[in-house]
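Practice problem 4.
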């Protein structure tokens, strides 16, 4: 019996998983990466909060205010990318190639990267740029290994159809125009909800709130303000830097 070609597979609709993933030492490698994420990223996120020492509009130069604004824009773009991606994803059952997956093979990780870059830049100058560099080094080391595992898994499941997809769609940085082939799944809010799309939204809101509390309440108190003074300053505009 002849093997199904990529063209034949695409003509039959979204590519369905018909095999079990086979990854060499997959569980051991995943556990090691999980430990690295826990030990590396969470202390770094804590630094993003602790080093948010100055509110954005209180920075000493318009360029530094702009840098903080870029950080906020990146976090919003990142969480939007993750929600958009989750609306197409059917884990372990279907190869997602539509929407953001037609531009990058790893839109969820692109979203995660944008969120982290944004949170780093939202820390105060001069800490935000070194934090951004450190975050990118850590992201490269961990997620390059994570993507390699997932590519092994998807190749073992989808074979030539996945290899063709890889030949047209970049691994990480998105292409401008989407690559499409055959019938693909459409975006679904229900699918995004089942994939727990609220988690990146809620997580980002918590992290942003902690940064705001850091620069508008915690650091004024460290510098000698009382709780009442810090809170009044927060209500008067200290949360953004214009008391």
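Answer key:
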């Amino acid at each position: 019996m002849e093997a199904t070609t990529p063209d034949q597979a695409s003509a039959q609709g979204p590519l369905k998983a018909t095999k079990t993933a086979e990854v060499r030492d997959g569980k051991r490698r995943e556990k090691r990466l999980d430990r690295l994420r826990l030990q590396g990223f969470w202390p770094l996120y804590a630094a993003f909060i602790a080093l948010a020492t100055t509110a954005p509009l209180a920075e000493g130069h318009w360029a530094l205010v702009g840098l903080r604004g870029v950080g906020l824009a990146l976090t919003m773009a990142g969480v939007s990318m993750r929600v958009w991606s989750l609306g197409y994803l059917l884990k372990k059952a279907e190869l997602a190639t539509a929407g953001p997956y037609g531009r990058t093979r790893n839109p969820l990780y692109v979203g995660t990267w944008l969120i982290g870059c944004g949170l780093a830049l939202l820390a105060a100058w001069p800490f935000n740029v070194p934090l951004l560099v450190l975050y990118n080094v850590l992201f490269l080391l961990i997620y390059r290994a994570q993507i390699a595992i997932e590519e092994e898994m998807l190749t073992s499941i989808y074979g030539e159809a996945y290899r063709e997809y890889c030949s047209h769609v970049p691994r990480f940085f998105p292409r401008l125009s989407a690559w499409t082939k055959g019938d693909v799944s459409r975006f679904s809010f229900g699918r995004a909800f089942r994939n727990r799309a609220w988690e990146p939204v809620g997580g980002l809101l918590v992290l942003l709130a902690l940064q705001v509390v850091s620069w508008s309440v915690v650091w004024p108190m460290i510098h000698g303000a009382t709780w009442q003074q810090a809170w009044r300053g927060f209500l008067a505009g200290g949360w953004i830097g214009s008391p």
